[in-house]
Design goal:
Blueprint: E1 8-12, H1 15-18, H2 31-36, H3 58-68, E2 72-76, H4 79-82, H5 94-109, E3 113-119, H6 125-131, H7 139-154, E4 160-165, H8 167-175, H9 191-213, H10 215-218, E5 221-227, E6 230-233, H11 239-262, H12 267-273, H13 282-288, E7 295-298, E8 302-307, E9 321-324, H14 346-359, E10 365-369, H15 382-386, H16 389-408, E11 413-419, E12 438-441, E13 447-450, H17 452-464
Parallel strand pairs: 1-2, 1-11, 2-3, 3-4, 4-5, 5-7, 6-8, 7-10, 10-11
Antiparallel strand pairs: 8-9, 12-13
Helix pairs in contact: 7-9, 8-9, 9-11, 14-16, 16-17
Bound molecules: beta-D-glucopyranose.
GO molecular function, one term: cellobiose glucosidase activity
Protein name: beta-glucosidase
Pfam families: Glyco_hydro_1 (PF00232)
Length: 468
């Protein structure tokens, strides 16, 4: 059980979840600033206004990464710091650009490889007002392309670019569930599929630009990050449940990865959604197909999947099936955490790495997020929180499952990022749910304290990465 000798490992974060400093140095508002102001949208009524104050604590964060031994760091850029109004004819905020240029230089000087995500859900708010942002097939992809180009030019030393984080979440959580910004669930039957399509186009435009103007000089790579939970049939002897498992993966992963690797949406989606699922024009298809240098995999949990007997409802987004924690025999998939959707099940990780590899011809994979919350963690004292044995066990089992997939299943996994470097703004859950491997004391200047799990990582990876 081992990992390749050039394996990258570290921690991941996202701009709106950690930066704070929302009015500093000319940053414009994003849709999350606006969304957090709507009463009832965020569990504790909080926002990313201060968060971990990482915008002002870059040196502390880099020192922390160094102390923990990370060889890489995945973070995201706040688009509205770079172009406060967001659009392709809007002006650039040089202070915002300079901030990230210095951050990347400082990371590199500390021997830490930056993995940079361009978009982790924080659309400039002006684009929402101007043309409803992600709903625009014409404007959004081109505005994103321009923003991406500004960053490619500003950060030539970055060799690992992520276009989008989890387009599934941007589409489903925002336009079906309505729990993420901008929270528009007025057309659950149509909007998620339009948004997904537009995000694919935005990704592909940025990749095309990178490849034509920047890739050769920087010798870098670019890809999208997709989320996906592992699946097990509710009744393993029922072919309809086995098929439903496949369909669930197609509706979450295949929705984006099939167009990127094969040039079109999965047929199961077309069958259920008909013409509510956009068609690729020939030009769009040519742009999207082949637009990944690597596969970015975010992974947290697993479910049992049970097919439904009745026709799919109009608002169904999952493939006409039930997603469950218990199977027919009454076995539970994993222990409860603070996140209602998350239960640890490391065998699912190995399974899903295999599924992705087989389906997409063994792409290079970076595990761009993996981690867990802990039930009731926020109710404990700091001393208790630092002894996060539940998280220690989670990482131990998941990282080993990944190493098995790498050693035995031919999975080409080349990097791993624990979510997250530190406790942060957990979107609609606010600050009550902690995903950090480091504790953040929000009552005392956002001071960071490594939990046991943060220190485990180095031990774990050093024991598993081949020396030569
Ligand atoms: C997201 C993170 C989030 C994490 C835990 C991922 O889907 O990319 O931003 O904090 O899950 O919910």
């Amino acid at each position: 059980m081992s990992l390749p000798n050039d394996f990258h490992w570290g921690f991941a974060t996202a701009s709106y979840q950690i930066e704070g400093a929302v009015d500093q140095d000319g940053r414009g508002p994003s849709i999350w600033d606006t969304f957090c102001k709507i009463p009832g949208k965020i569990a504790d009524g909080s926002s990313g206004d201060v968060a971990c104050d990482s915008y002002n604590k870059t040196q502390e964060d880099i020192a922390l990464l160094k102390e923990l031994g990370a060889t890489a760091y995945r973070f995201s850029i706040s688009w509205s710091r770079i172009i406060p109004l967001g659009g392709r004819n809007d002006s650039i905020n040089q202070k915002g650009v300079d901030h990230y240029v210095k951050f990347v230089d400082d990371l590199l000087a500390a021997g830490i490889t930056p993995f940079v995500t361009l978009f982790h859900w924080d659309v400039p708010d002006e684009l929402e007002k101007r043309y409803r942002s992600l709903l625009s097939r014409k404007e959004f992809p081109l505005d994103f392309k321009r923003y991406a180009g500004v960053m490619f030019a500003a950060l030539p030393k970055v060799k690992h670019w992520v276009t989008l984080n989890e387009p599934w979440c941007s589409s489903i959580q925002a336009y079906s569930a309505g729990i993420f910004a901008p929270g528009d669930d007025s057309r659950q039957d149509i909007y998620p599929w339009i948004v997904g399509h537009n995000l694919l186009l935005a990704h592909a435009h940025a990749v095309q630009l990178y490849r034509s103007e920047f890739k050769e000089a920087s010798q870098g790579e670019i890809g999208v990050v997709l989320n996906g939970d592992a699946v097990f049939p509710w009744d393993a002897t029922d072919p309809a449940d086995v098929e439903a498992c496949e369909r669930k993966l197609e509706f979450t992963i295949g929705w984006f990865a099939d167009p990127i690797y094969f040039g079109d949406y999965p047929s199961s989606m077309r069958k259920q959604l008909g013409d509510r699922l956009p068609e690729f024009t020939a030009e769009e298809r040519a742009l999207v197909q082949g637009s990944n240098d690597f596969y970015g995999m975010n992974h947290y949990t697993a479910n049992y999947v049970k097919h439904r007997e009745t026709p799919a409802e109009l608002n169904d987004i999952a493939g006409n099936l039930d997603v469950l924690f218990y199977n027919k025999r009454g076995d539970c998939i994993g222990e409860e955490t603070q996140s209602p959707w998350l239960r640890p099940c490391a065998t699912g990780f190995r399974d899903l790495l295999g599924w992705i590899s087989r389906r997409y011809q063994y792409p290079k994979i970076y595990v761009t997020e993996n981690g867990t919350s802990i039930k009731g963690e926020d109710d404990l004292s700091r001393e208790e929180i630092l002894e996060d044995d539940f998280r220690v066990q989670y990482f131990d089992q998941y990282v080993k499952a990944m190493a098995v997939a790498s050693s035995l299943d031919g999975v080409n996994v080349r990097g791993y990022f624990a979510w997250s470097l530190m406790d942060n703004f957990e979107w609609a859950e606010g600050y009550q749910t902690r995903f950090g491997t480091c504790y953040v004391d929000y009552k005392d200047c956002q001071k960071r304290y490594p939990k046991k799990s943060a220190r485990l990582m180095k031990v774990l990876f050093e024991s598993m990465i081949k020396k030569s």
